[in-house]
Amino acid sequence: MRILLAQPLGYLYTTGGAHKANRMLMEGLARREHNCRALTAYSSAESVKTREQFLSLLGERGVGLSSSSAEEDVFTLESVEVHVSRDYLHQCARVSHHVKEFAPDWVLVSEDTASVMLGAALEAAPARVVYISHSPSTLPFGPDSFAADPDKTALLKKCAGIITVSDYMRQYIERWSGIASAAIKFPVYGAQPFPRFGGFDQGFVTMVNPCVIKGRAIFLELARRFPEVEFAAVPTWGGAQKDLELIRDLPNVRIIPPSERIDDILAQTRILLAPSLWGEAFGQIVTEAMLRGIPVLASDSGGLPEAKLGTDYVLPVRRIEGYEPVLDEQKRIEYVPIVPEQNVDPWEAALREVLTDRSTYEHVAEESRAAASNFVGGLGFRPFEQYLEGLVAEREKSEAQEEGSARGRGTELAGAMSGMSAEKRALIARRLKGRLAEALAKRQPAQENSFNGTGSKAS
User: Fold this and answer.
1) Quick check: helix, strand or coil at residue 175?
2) How many CA atoms lie within 13 A of 38 on its CB side?
3) 72-77 and 80-85 as β-strands: parallel, antiparallel, unpaired?
4) What is the domain class of 2-183 according to CATH?
5) Strand 333-338 relative to strand 72-77, pairing
6) pTM, to two decimals
């Protein structure tokens, strides 16, 4: 198959779960001899916002450009041809070009909150677009959405299919939009065996991405209640300056820089905290820590219980109640979460138990490692191929049924007309020709005003 991924996310620097999952999917499909191309942003890293910074990042990784133009920079990584556009709207405008030039069997669109890219893909490749959803917050419906939008929901309903990452997400999508989707776990963890890092006597109590929606308040309060314990915070995509200032105020919390190599972080970790307050789609970091024998204390929000794989220490939180749109200093819309006060007592009790009881720690560590190893051992790229192949079969069946129905209608019409006089048949033919001309005349203005992939109507 020829597969085009279009996403407003970065491709090269992948510390976020969605970024990493999509990149690993494309690389895995390429290894299985599919022809894969990605249309992406420069990077989702705060340190990479310009083309010059992007080229520097490429150089650090020993990756060279295969071509460069005013429209795009192109490089190849793990047999995936990656096209990088300078900004989101330019990316969207290039979707049509890639569909015509690459002729993909499928266009995968992911995490497109604005839905401009999705609209461009649907116009360029109707019946060949599959949406990949990694978060309920970026969907245009339901209580966990940043902003509900019926028009954007209508675009999703036009997709040939939707792939998501957990049963929680599958149920969320169906409940709040009525759209069926497939929950397919992404094989993003690498090859076994994994190193064993957990240790009762050493390491930090670590939280990755300590921002408001991920449960920063619980993390900070636990650090205050355990002043003798060393904590670590790893700021990634959700961290703001205010988050870092609050963290730096605590003497027993160290800030560790993010890394694409998750082992750089987990090698320093004794216990992982995942106190998310929003609808966490799955929680990849939870499984990554468990694979390495690190006990995880996770909230009961969203798909985190799934990521815990039936192991102990799924703890209660009061979930975010919604999002309030406000304008930031650059006059851009920002969605501020409405966060209820949290009861940290259950978290304190659980953390104290795992920190102070060696047998409990070792039991949870072994149980977690075994469950995660078994889970990862069952993952692969074949389910994605089977899903896309199934969509092809459904499309061909639908087309065959439509063709058969059309033939049947034609046979019925021919039979009805066979007994008519030549004059009557000629009259019907003239009327049908006139109706066709009217339909084409009505259709032409709609085509001229159709979506042109730039976020505006063509004039």
Assistant:
1) helix
2) 28
3) antiparallel
4) alpha beta
5) unpaired
6) 0.84
Cis before 193 (ω within 30): yes
Report the C-alpha gap between 83 and 73 in whole angstroms: 6
Fold for the domain defined by 204-369? Rossmann fold (3.40.50)
Euclidean distance between CA atoms 44 and 17, whole angstroms: 12
Contact 153, 140 (CB under 8 A): yes
Contacts of 91 (CB under 8 A, 6+ apart): 6, 8, 39, 40, 41, 85, 117
Residue 334: Cβ within 10 Å count? 13
Judge whether 104 and 3 are in contact, CB under 8 Å. Answer: yes
308: which 2 tokens? Answer: 């815990």
State the chain's maximal CA–CA distance in angstroms. 100
User: How are beta strands 322-327 and 333-338 bridged, if at all?
Assistant: antiparallel
Q: Length of the chain, please?
A: 459
Residue 221: what residue type? E
C-alpha to C-alpha distance for 203 and 417, rounded to whole angstroms: 85
* Both structure tokens of 324: 């309030």
331 sits in the region (left: phi over 0; alpha: psi -120 to 50; else beta) called left
Cα-trace Rg, the chain:
26
What is the location of CATH 3.40.50.2000 in the chain? Answer: 2-183, 204-369
As averages over each run of 10 residues, the pLDDT of the chain (459 residues) reads 95 79 96 97 67 85 90 93 91 96 98 96 97 96 94 98 98 98 96 92 96 95 98 84 82 92 96 97 96 98 97 97 84 87 98 98 98 97 97 82 65 65 72 66 43 35
Phi-psi bin for 333: left (phi > 0), alpha (psi -120 to 50), beta? beta
Query: In Å, what is the CA distance from 143 to each residue of 9, 26, 76, 132, 199?
Result: 24, 31, 39, 19, 39
Rounded Cα gap, residues 157 and 27, in angstroms:
28
For residue 310, with 0-12 CB atoms within 10 Å meaning exposed, 13-18 middle and 19 or more buried, which class applies? Answer: exposed
Angstrom distance (rounded) from CA 124 to CA 3: 14
Helix (H, G, I), strand (E, B) or coil at 64: coil
d(CA 265, CA 254): 12
Residue among 365, 213, 372 nearest 301 (CA): 213
Q: How far is it, in rounded angstroms, from Cα 57 to Cα 134?
A: 25
DSSP 353-378: HHHH-HHHHHHHHHHHHHHHHHHHHT
